[in-house]
Amino acid sequence: MHRVSARFASSFSFAFGRQSRYLHFDFAARVIPHPEKAAKGGEDAFFASKRALAVADGVGGWADSGVDPALYSRSLMQNVGQQMESNPLDPKAELVKAAAAVKETGTSTACVLILDDQAKCIRSANLGDSGYLVFRTRSDKTKESGSSIIYSVKSQQHYFNCPFQCGSMGDDPIKAEDHKMDIHVDDVILMATDGLWDNVFPEELESIYEKWRKSEVQPSTESLAKSIADQAYTFSLDRKRKSPFTVGAMTQGYSLAQAIGGKSDDITVLIGRVME
To answer: How is residue 25 annotated by DSSP?
Structure first.
């Protein structure tokens, strides 16, 4: 099992690659906790392996009741990782089982994705406002080659800034949105908690990906994870930035003056590049 907790450092990078003749992920992770939560490593958690990616964002409101939000998210991801050892193919079923086995008090968003080598596809289940997108590099003889986002998960929220979440008095994880799509060699999955999505727009992510793709002969997943997470962190500290969170808040009636600025949060970024 390849799971790394963010609690060991104020920022963290991790990468893994393996040669094989079947579809698998060359994967990497980058975790940057909220500045005020760096000492304990933040409240996000993740699992990553050559055939699965998963993230969880412990809901911070539990701290008001004296509960450490990190305990639930870490337990959830530990359970997901243990279940992946049996090579399952239904991410929603695994999320439901993982949530049922958590003994800690708390709630968490969750996103689980499995690479199915036999069907040449990915299957996912997303609950809340973590999520993922898929980059695919297109090549057309009549046009300039370029990268594009071919799929992006939609956030599940009860109302603005209140995502679906499993756990104590939370949502039934069976409500997770599931998705299946064909996958190609060299497709890149970017999975993250809302610390990314609230601070970086899709077109900015695409620009980072394109720069990464063209900058190295063999660009590493670790360097892409670092570039994306570091940019999100920089944006989160910008008090004058009109961020994705700002835009969302304004659609709910907040003024620009009330909503302006990046959103400080734990930032967890996973990259999975499909290899053969």
So the answer is: E
